[in-house]
Design goal:
The chain has 507 residues and is of the alpha/beta class. The protein has two domains: 5-247 and 465-505, 3-Layer(aba) Sandwich (Rossmann fold); 272-459, Rossmann fold (3-Layer(aba) Sandwich). 38% of the residues lie in helices and 16% in strands. The protein has 20 helices and 18 strands. The chain has helices at 21-35, 49-52, 86-89, 107-122, 144-151, 176-179, 199-206, 215-220, 231-236, 272-283, 309-320, 334-346, 359-368, 384-390, 401-406, 415-418, 430-444, 447-459, 464-481, 493-505, and strands at residues 5-9, 39-45, 56-60, 67-71, 80-84, 134-138, 157-162, 170-172, 192-193, 196-198, 209-212, 241-243, 296-300, 325-330, 351-355, 371-374, 394-397, 423-424. The strands form three sheets. Strands 3-4-5-2-1-6-7-11-12 form a nine-stranded mixed sheet, with helices on both faces. It has a six-stranded parallel sheet with strand order 15-14-13-16-17-18, with helices on both faces. Strands 8-10-9 form a three-stranded antiparallel sheet. Strand 13 (296-300), helix 11 (309-320) and strand 14 form a beta-alpha-beta unit. It is globular. The structure holds adenosine-5'-diphosphate (ADP). The site of adenosine-5'-diphosphate has 19 residues, from helix 1, strand 14, helix 13 and helix 14.
Length: 507
Amino acid sequence: MRSLKILFVAAEMAPLVKVGGLGDVLGALPAALAARGHDARVLLPAYDPIMTRKARVVDLLPDGGGRILEYRASELPVPVLLLETPGFLRRAGRPYLTCAGTPWADDPLQFGRLGRVAADIAAGRLVRAWHPDVVHANDWHTGLAPVWMHLEESAVASVFTIHNLGYIGRFPTNILPRLGLPGSMNHPDALEFYGDLAFIKGGLRFADRLTTVSPRYAEEIQTPAFGSGLDGLLRARTDRLSGILNGIDLEAWNPATDPALENHFDVSRPDAKLDERDRLLHGLGLDAVTDAQTPVLAWVGRLTAQKGADLLAEVMPGLMERSLRLVVLGSGDRDTERALVRAARSWPGKLAVHLGFDEALAHQIYAGADMLLMPSRFEPCGLAQMFAMRYGSIPLVTPVGGLADTVIDMSQESPHETGACGFHLAGPAPSALVEGVNRAIGVFCQPDQWHLLMRNAMTCRFDWDSSAAAYERVYQAALEDKPARPAGAAPSRRRLRIRQRAALGSR
Ligand code: ADP
C-alpha cells in the first residue's frame, strides 16, 4: 500500500494527556502506522501552557481565536499539532471536567473548533506545508470534522472511530450559529438528536468510514441495548462500519522492563511477581499475604456505572468476608467514591482505595495483583484487562464488547486445552460478581491450574501491528470511494458558498 499522510484528531494522547483508553490508543496507533511507512500526525488540544512550552508556532487561526503549534520530542512517537486556544488553556490539565466534577461549559465551542481546525488542515487552509490524505477523527469531541469535510465535499477521506458510544457530546441546538454551521444541521438526518445536537452524529452520519474498537462492540452498538439511541443510524451505515480491536503498547507495558516496578518478571520467570505483590501491599498499608489461598484482587478504572463500580461497592461486605486483599484505583461517580472510601475505613489492612489518577500505581497494581475486576455493563474494547493479562493478573469480566473478544473464559475444561486466560461473569449484577470471585478463588487455590491461566494470559499478544494493518484497509476503502479530483481543481460553487458561510459564522 502507498504511504499515506494521516491526520489523527482526538481529545487525548498518551503520554501528553491521558484520561483513559482513548489516550492509550492515540499514543500507540499513529506510531504503529508510522512504523508501517505512513506519515501520521495527531491534532490535540493544548490543555495547559506546559504542553506548548517546547512547541513551535506553525499557524494562527484566521479569526484570532488561537494558534497551532507543532511539537516533536523523543518521547512522542509522531509529530503532534497542538491547538492552543484560551478556552483549552484555561482547563489547566483537566480535559473534560472542572474541579467540581462538571463538564466545562465551553465544550461545544472548544471541541467544535477542534473539528473545524482539522477540516481546515484537510482543506489546506491551515498548516499548508502538510496535506493529509485521511483525517481520522475519534469520539464526539471531533465529530464536527467529518461534518465540515462533508459540507466542503473534501477530497480528503474521513474516518471516525467510536471509542465509547456512551458519550455523545449533547448540546442545545441554539449553539449551531456560534459553530458557524448551517441550520440544515439541525435535522434528524444530520446532528439533531431528540431536540438537541449530538456531536458524535457528525462522525457517525458523515464520515466516509466508521470503526469501533472491537468486533463485538461493532455488533452491539447496532442494537437498542447498546446503541445510545444511535443504533438505527449505525444499522443504516453497517456496510461502512467495522470493529478493529485495540492493541497495547508492548514496550510501555512490559513487566520485564517497566520502570514503575522494582521486581521485573515475565512468563519464563514469573516468581518476581510475588515480590511486586508484597511491595504493592506494603506500599498501600495492607496486611501482608502469608498463605497461598489469599489472592490480591484489583480494580483500575473509572468508578462509573459503565464499569460496574456501583456493583463493586454493593458487594463489598460479602467480598470482605473472604480471605483476600482488594486494591482500588480510580475516580468517578461521587457516591461510589464515598462508599468505597467508607469501606476502606471499615476494613483497614484488607482494602485500599486510592482515588485519583496515578499512572505508576496503575502499573504496580497490574503487576502486583492476582486478579483484576471488570464487571462492566458495556465495554467498547477495554485496555485494562489486556494490561492485566500481560502482567499475569487474571481478569474477571462481563463478557461484553472487547472483554468478550479478548478474555477466554476458564470453563470446566482445563485451561491448557481452551487457552483460557480469565473468568466470564454471568452478567453485570452483584450476585454474578460474587459468584465469579468465588469461582476464581477456587481455581487460585489450585496452583497448577492458576499458573496455566497466568501463562495463557501472559502469552496473549495484543499487538498493534495487525490492527494498524486493518486501519490501512479502512483508509484505502475510504479513499477509493472518493471521486478522483485533480490536485488544485477548483472547488464546486456549493463548496465555495459553504466556505463563505463558514468564514462568516466563525467570526
Ligand atoms: P476507559 O477508556 O473506558 O476508561 P480502558 O480500560 O479502555 O477504559 O482504559 C483505561 C486506561 O486508563 C488504562 O490505561 C488504565 O490503566 C488507565 N486508568 C484508568 N483509571 C486510572 C487511574 N485512576 N489511574 C491510572 N490509570 C488509570
